[in-house]
Amino acid sequence: MGTSPVTLAGEAVGTIVGVADAVGGVVRWVFDNAIWLALAAGVLLAGWEALQRRLAERALAKRTYVELVPSAEFAPSPEQIWRQGMQLISAAGAGRWWVPARARTVRLRLRADGKKPMSYRIEAPAGARALLAQTPYGARVEVIEAAPIADKRRKYVVRAVLTLRGEPGARLRDVPLDPDPLQPLIDAVADLKTRFGDLAEVCVDLSPASRWRLAVHRAQIMQRARDKGRREAQRDARWISREADSSFGLRQLLDPAEGQRSGRGRMAMSPQPRRLERETVLRKLTQSTGLVRVQILVRCASNKEGRAEQRLARVNAALDVFAGATSLASQGWSLGPVRIGPDRWPWCKRFDERWTSALMRPARNGWAHLEELAGLLKPPTGAASVPLLERDMPTFKNGADLIPQGWHRGPDGQERLLATHEDDTLFEVQSGKSSWGKTMRAQVQAVASAHNDRGLAFVDPHGDSFSDVARYLAHDKIMERIALFDLTVRSEDDLLGCWNLLDMSSGQRPYEVVAAVVDAMSTALGWDDVSAPRALTILTKAVEALVAVNTRATAAGLPERQATIFQVRPLLTDAAFRALALGALDGEAARWWTSSFLDLPREGLLTVLNPLERLGANPVIRAFLGSPVSGYDIRRAMDEGHVVWICPPGTGPTDRLLVSLIVRDFLRAGLSRRDLPEAKRRPFRFYLDELISLDSGASTVIAQITEELRKFGCRLHGMTQLLQRLTPTTRAALLQNASCLSTTAGSVEAIAQITNQWPGSSVTPQDAAGLERWWHYASFTVAGKRIGPLRIRGPELKEVFGRLAKPARVGALRKAAHTNAGARPLSALTAAALAQEEQVREYLTGLTPQAPPAPDDQSEEQYA
């Protein structure tokens, strides 16, 4: 027989009662042992927290550090920034499997301490070292392995924690990349002072979005949205009910019968909560790709009271650039003048722990997409205006081996005189309109170099510059080595130095002297192997012969019997003089004169003689070039660090020929320094004013100076009104090798020649064209790095060297300059130049017995 239903029911009831008793027993046991259970749970939770903390500390103790150094042309695209952000997320999770989520972080540290405008570092788990060795930014960002930062303690320190404040899922503002989103932050720290120990740092900690945390957060947001919807529906229902009651009461007052027919009135329908769209509620939290947890810590410090607080306020204001539907707001609250937050005990201890270890403890709403943080995921771009610090470009001080460049106004509103190092400043080009400060700036630089015990030659076609600088050079150490060659003299009693182009008394190599003279004259006159081959040959042979005569004269101890360039005429036209000169030549050189020379037509000689006649027709130039022994020796000036001032007589065709000879001699003297070890080649600067007039005479020589003389210690500063009027070869060489480029105001077309050399710069030709007098835009090279272009005010002699001025000693300076140049009265030099042919003839007569001229020799009367 089967079991009866009554029996089954009884058994079921007994089972239920037994289970109920068991549950009740468990509940009673839990209740009786609640304290112990709570204690055990607390111990387990504390142990778990301790384990998590220990693992986090162990993971965060081993980090890798890199610094990103962008180039001046750095301009990342949104795609590159996105890839960088995804790489950072991968770097954050590069730790071991047991690393807690709070320690899976990557830190972006933006730091300014007055030594750098703003450094950009990435700190990540040690396992991310290989991942961070390269960036999606390519070659325009250099990745440098760095070490942990060890800061000195500052007296005053303030802290802040910034959180995302706004509706859940709302986004920060979409900040464009140009201008750079970091620009407000750069401006906020631009005036940090190292002498006060100022420091400002912003640390942006990123952590990958945990799936379960994100799911919980989404669920919380959806639940809050539903609750809000219900509350709004209930509120609407109350309003509807009130409106219905009010409407019924009004109808009853107007028509009591209507009220009796309808009873209490119609029941109002309660509104239902609106349906929630998941994407609408969660917004940015809908997509998990590129979603990270964010923690932003700010710390400012200083050794001067009040500066850290002011800096923190400016940093907080700078980060307002990201404020949109969500903003970056500082944690804490204020009670009157007292601020309660991370900067106060006991919260500061927790802040310092997170600051030191990069431990992640973000706020509840600390979720952001990489696009929102794009401005923080990269170093400053080329579009950022970075402040110039003293470490980037020094301030000029007398005697500090610096070259003054111009006055620059810093972020603090104060001006300082920028300078470049002597050894860094190789070649400089200045362009711009006349009387706008180019020459004054060059004069200031020349005076500084002179006081730095450096050698220089200043070529000024106007002749006014020496009078401007004289009072600042009138010092004993400069008087010993200054020389003045002023060819603007007019009176017979005026003192003038002299220069024999063919002087061999300093031990020059004959072939170098010949090449320098021939190349200078042929370049100035436009001769080459195609247009004037015969003239080139005649001039070369004539100079060779006279150099040979001078070599023998100096070897014999008779330098005063040397020939000058003006003895080329008697050599070509006077058979008796030529016959005497042949005695100083070797057989091969003399053979050309006794064979090939006799077959040359008269026109070939005239081509050579005409420019020499033009030189001799100017009494000052004839006196300057007509003496046998030179007071002018640019090679000696280079080796001994002399200060040489050269004032050519003008800018006409004959003057350009003289300038061509002078500038070509610069090249010859520089190249001749091959015989010196590199360590003994003292740097020497050439300042060439009115470069257009000098270049038209010297042609490619200026280009050769910039291209070939750097290794021989020579430097060049060129000033010109119109860069495009220089020969293409000279212009290309100057722009290619310039350490410093500057322009004053001028025409847009002229200024574009300079501004085109500043790619990526915000300075346009129109900006420079509107400059006021004495103002320049300039770029510089400091320690191999280009600085600028910067807007600077040109320095003036009086404001830079006012304390060095000695106007009472200007007369003594001029006397020393003339003495060192071997200057004599113009009348004495003129007489010596006119008598030199006879001096050479007498020397040659004693050297070689005079022979009668050959019957087929060409007589001087032919060329009269």
Structure description:
The chain has 864 residues and is an alpha+beta fold. It is built from 30 helices and 24 strands. Strands 1, 2, 3, 4, 5, 6, 7, 8 and 11 form a 9-stranded antiparallel sheet that branches. Strands 16-18-15-19-20-14-21-22-23 form a 9-stranded mixed sheet, with helices on both faces. A two-stranded antiparallel sheet has the order 9-10. β12 (402-409) and β13 (415-421) form a beta hairpin. α11 packs parallel to α12 (465-473), α14 (510-525) runs antiparallel to α22 and α22 packs across α23. It starts with a helix and ends in a 17-residue tail after the last helix.
Based on secondary structure, the structural category is alpha+beta
Cα-to-Cα separation, first versus last residue: 164 Å
Mean pLDDT: 84
Biggest sheet character: 9 strands, antiparallel
* Shape label: elongated
Oligomer class: single chain
The low-pLDDT segments are 850-864
- What is the percentage of strand-forming residues? 15-25%
User: What's the total helix number?
Assistant: 30
Number of E strands:
24
Key phrases:
30 helices; alpha+beta; 864 residues; single chain; 24 strands; 43% helix
Short description:
Helices cover 43% and strands 17% of the residues. It is α+β, with helices and mostly antiparallel strands and 864 residues long. The strands form five sheets. Strands 1, 2, 3, 4, 5, 6, 7, 8 and 11 form a nine-stranded antiparallel sheet that branches. It has a nine-stranded mixed sheet with strand order 16-18-15-19-20-14-21-22-23, sandwiched between helices.
